[in-house]
Design goal:
- With 302 residues, the protein is an alpha/beta fold.
- Strands 3-2-1-4-5-6 form a six-stranded parallel beta sheet, with helices on both faces.
- GO terms for molecular function: nucleotide binding; oxidoreductase activity.
- This is Putative dehydrogenase.
- Keywords: Oxidoreductase.
């Protein structure tokens, strides 16, 4: 199999620490080109991995078979449909857009073009997670669950300067991971029953699942907690099953994503548990949570 020529859009910390080395080192991909809206960042990142720094998005598209995005949701929503219409396979960051309308436009462009589009839901690509979900599926009859993702990421220097994370908060940044995994563990989330966002961006969420289960989640990127707490659990007729995140797993998960990307391209398969339609489903739930939190705030005293 020939290596997929992949262009990277974005030059921030996540692009430099996960996307770029992952694409450069994977046997099925070649990091061919880099473009950001900051030319100096594109030149620096491209030089570190032997790639071509591009001066524009169209120039990047001319060089590659696929595009990996590491940019804010609004920028991804603008650029990803253009890449799909140009026939490029996509690696999409979460959330895939700022709202469901933008996410739908990406999904429609992907469907019309017939390209592969995977979402970087890193936890789902971990073997530990896959084994946990397989066990839950084989056992069945889980009635509830909970998730906690508590971090001080936005208090530190690495992501503290990320405007979109400060703007959209923990729900948009880590919410997709949490919602996706609780959905996969307990069955499709059919609605957000309640949501509350504190002034310090601590989110408390209550979900209903198809089949009658319910689950809760607590999310924050502004708590002085180190190391980050990431815990998932379900419970029911067969007891209690918990899952944590293995430290340093992001690179392994990204490698597994690229394994799947290459296999899908070669096989002609387009459906995947973490494809663009998964991203669209999660976006609908994020929008519901935002709406529910807004309603709750209008009912609060004062």
């Amino acid at each position: 199999m020939q290596q997929l020529r992949v262009g990277l859009v974005g030059g921030g910390p996540w692009a430099g620490s996960v996307h770029a080395p992952g694409l450069a080192e994977h046997p099925g991909t070649e990091l061919t080109a880099v473009w950001t809206r900051r030319p100096e960042a594109a030149r620096e990142l491209a030089a570190a991995h032997g790639a071509l720094p591009c001066t524009g998005f169209e120039e990047l598209l001319d060089q590659v078979d696929a595009v990996a995005f590491a940019v804010p949701p609004a920028a991804q929503a603008e650029l990803a449909p253009r890449a799909a219409r140009a026939g490029k396979h996509l690696v999409l960051e979460k959330p895939i857009a700022r709202d469901a309308e933008q996410a739908r436009r990406i999904a429609d462009a992907v469907d019309d073009a017939g390209v592969v589009a995977l979402v970087v839901l890193t936890l789902r690509y971990a073997m530990q997670t896959r084994d946990w979900l397989a066990d839950l599926g084989n056992t069945g009859d889980w009635r509830g669950g909970s998730a906690r993702w508590l971090s001080g990421a936005l208090l530190g220097s690495k992501y503290g300067g990320s405007p979109w994370r400060h703007d959209l908060g923990a729900l948009a940044d880590i919410g997709p991971h949490v919602i996706d995994l609780m959905d996969a563990a307990l069955g499709e989330i059919t609605g957000v029953l309640a949501a509350h966002r504190s002034p310090e961006d601590l989110w408390q969420l209550l979900f209903e699942h198809k089949g009658g289960a319910t689950s809760t989640a607590a999310l924050s990127l502004r708590l002085p907690i180190d190391p980050t707490v990431i815990e998932f659990a379900v419970y029911g007729e067969h007891g209690y099953r918990a899952l944590g995140r293995k430290p340093g797993a992001a690179h392994e998960c990204y490698t597994a994503l690229l394994d799947d990307l290459a296999a899908l391209v070669v096989s002609g398969t387009r459906e995947h548990p973490c494809d663009v339609h998964r991203g669209l489903h999660l976006q609908h739930l994020l929008d519901q949570a935002q709406h529910a939190a807004g309603q709750a705030s209008t009912r609060s005293p004062g």
